[in-house]
Amino acid sequence: MKVAIIKQIYDAQGPWASVKWQDTDPAKIFDIWPGTITFWGLACLLKADWYVVPQQKLVSDYVADILKNKPRKKIMEKYTKHVVDIKDIPLDDYDLVITLDPILEIPASSAGRPKKSKTLFAYFVPEHWDRLYNQSIERPLGNFDLFLAVMLDSHPTLAALPQSVSFPYPFDAQALRDIFPPSEKKEVVWAEWRLLSALGMTKMWTDSAEKAVKRLERVINMPVYQKGNFNKTPFGITNPPSWKDALQYLGELNQCKYYIAVGRYSGPGQGIREAAALGLICIGEQDKLYHQMVCHPKLLCKDMVSMPEVLRELVASPELQKEALEYQYRALEQKFAKEPLELLQKAAAMKQENIS
């Protein structure tokens, strides 16, 4: 499939410039991609072209939060490059167009249905707390064909178009391992920042979260690496932007043998994908969606209190370590690559049938 992903200038997710996939690659794209890598695996898996467009009529709660802060808004205006008008994007050249938020005004026929087009139009809502997310769970907004519900709280299977469907953030594990080949790991734990924030009794990254690192090391008797300071600025927007920061993070993560992601207060837990792809053995929580999909069942904790004992049992069992790694690799390939691709291909075929 030929794929395009479209985002607005004031959306901090993804690259801060329009770019064709043929002109970049999984590592090079970080030159224009600061902050979180939520949609990086999607871009690699689909080999998608990216288009950054001006702010559209629809303003999500997430984008509104960025716009209300003038310095933050000016940073994005200063550093975002190659912004294009939607009318200049050859939408008909693509089999699939994905937008971050339902920002396209897809023309409708006199009967109110989308005009005939071979292109499949789908969208994510980048922040699950956004009102647009809840409004989309039952049915896509506007004339979109698909809403991709990353909290897995919509329809479980694809039956017809238009439809909302449960759909995890896809991930290209092999693309990440090509950048960071498998290597010998240190006997070190990587603690997700939310674990340290929970220990510090704060929801954001503060001095109390920083101080929690030493406390955690004493409890588990093992060195702890972390990267929580990116969360000091809303949505990771800094002046200048943190270009290639993600590569540094992934390189440091790749050194560790274990990844602990308990203590989350919200969200599905998608950060565990990168750790699993890099060969870290992941310990998660029983009630987090993506942890359930990735982690070996014996490494899902009931809560933070039970985590140290789970870690001790893991460290003492080379057999469990081997089983967990194999389980994670299979889960990434099946749940975050094969199945999402098959769903999109099925939807594209449905769209073709609808217009024939």
Name the features:
14% strand, 5-stranded parallel sheet, 356 residues, 2 domains, 12 helices, alpha/beta, 35% helix, 11 strands, Rossmann fold
In short:
With about 350 residues, the chain is α/β, with parallel strands linked by helices. It has helices at about 40-45, 60-65, 70-80, 130-135, 175-180, 195-200, 205-220, 245-255, 270-275, 290-295, 305-315, 320-355; strands at about 5-10, 50-55, 95-100, 120-125, 145-150, 165, 185-190, 225, 255-260, 280-285, 300. It has two domains: about 5-170 and about 335-355, no CATH class; about 175-335, Rossmann fold (3-Layer(aba) Sandwich).
Structure characterization notes:
By secondary structure, the protein is an alpha/beta fold. It folds into two domains: about 5-170 and about 335-355, no CATH class; about 175-335, 3-Layer(aba) Sandwich (Rossmann fold), CATH 3.40.50. It contains twelve helices and eleven strands. Strands 2-1-3-4-5-6 form a six-stranded parallel β-sheet. A five-stranded parallel β-sheet has the order 8-7-9-10-11. Helix 6 (about 195-200) crosses helix 7. The chain starts with a strand and ends with a helix. Mean pLDDT is about 90; it is low at about 110-115.
